[in-house]
Amino acid sequence: MTKLFSSDWHLNHKNILTYCNRQFDSIKDMEETFFNNFENIFKCGDVFYFLGDFAFANKRQVCTYLDRLYDIGVRDLIFVCGNHDKPNSRVIADHKVVGWFGDRKLISIPYRMVLDHYPMYSWYNSHRGSYMLHGHCHGNLLTKTNPIKHSVDVGIDSAYRLFGEYRPFTEGDVLKVMDLFTAYDSDYFSIWDRWKEQNLK
What is the pLDDT of residues 103-156, one digit of tens each? Predict the structure, then answer.
């Protein structure tokens, strides 16, 4: 059993293809790729933490998307609400979701990680080495001007920039990124270049 992390899929959101320069011809292609890539990584018993902005859709459509995850085998889905989930927050909370946390609620898991939809400059135990996992920024903080140490945007667009494919982050992915932050703490603004050099060969 491992932990998987993702956010900001924006299912059924046509304009997201333009906003985030997603490499798809249609929303249908995007959705199929997201679910297929998730299924390729997911193993029975894995826990999936989704950090907000799941879909731009009505309640019936949201249920259909959640059923798709359930059909893949997801039984432990921990959902942190994003700003675009609010209209469907109740249906998400009631539909096959093991843990539900409303907007800006924080949870801690092993390795002292704090999860939220939004990035923060300071979070629970950040002064003691805890890590921050977030979404919302669509990979835009993965630049050399990123000022937030010990935090990772685990959104789907961030995954594409780091790994070259639209997929969830594994626990191992998160720890590798955090190790890089620690190893090059004194040379912080070159972290992104070093990550690409080591992982995108």
Answer: 556 666 666 788 999 888 888 888 777 888 999 988 877 654 555 677 889 999
Architecture of domain 3-199: 4-Layer Sandwich (3.60)
Structural contact between residues 11 and 56, judged by C-beta atoms closer than 8 angstroms: yes
Which residue's structure tokens are 């997603």? 22
pLDDT confidence of residue 189 = 44
For residue 4, what are the CA distances in angstroms to 61, 91, 125, 186? Answer: 23, 22, 22, 29
Q: Where are the alpha helices (DSSP H) in the chain?
A: 16-19, 27-41, 59-72, 89-94, 156-163, 171-183, 191-199
Give the mean model confidence (pLDDT) for residues 184-198: 55
Q: Which of 184, 193, 181, 176 is nearest to 151 (CA)?
A: 181
Which of the residue ranges 14-18, 148-152, 167-171 would you say has the lowest mean pLDDT? 148-152
Show me where the domains of the chain are located. Answer: 3-199
Structure tokens of 35? 């679910």
The span from the CA of 129 to the CA of 108, in Å, is 13
The pTM is what? 0.86
DSSP string, 43-76: -TT-EEEE-S--BSS-HHHHHHHHHHHHHHT--E
Which residues on adjacent β-strands are paired with residue 49? 5, 78
Q: Could you report how far apart the first and last alpha carbons of the chain are, in Å?
A: 28
